[in-house]
Design brief:
The protein has six helices and no strands. The chain has about 130 residues and is an all-alpha fold. The radius of gyration is 21 Å and the shape is elongated.
Amino acid sequence: AAIITAELECKADAAERLEKNKKAAIVRAEQDRIYISEFSQAIRAYYPNCPPGREIKIAEHACEKHSGRVGRTAQAKDFDKKMIDLAVEAHIRHAETNYDNQFGSGIRKREIRSNVKGKVSSIMMQWR
């Protein structure tokens, strides 16, 4: 009897729960938009010479939900400089070097990163 009662109660408020979930999703999306905007502003503050608009691309990528990227860490949510640096470094590595093209050539990831580290560091210095 308890199971049947619970099922009936669940069906009775299903529409209400659905509406609450829709509203909550809208709120979460807005909070995420604000966070990405603030993250991009932190990038711009640390890297004022970053090409215009690039900070937004970096923030969007680094803060992608369920990605495990640095923008989703607790430190990044505090706009920790190290996390900002890691996001910028990753972007530069992929967008400004031949990093991605070196995969599949038998070179290990660590060595590929080493191969592009000088260029990445140089660009990071220019953007500061």
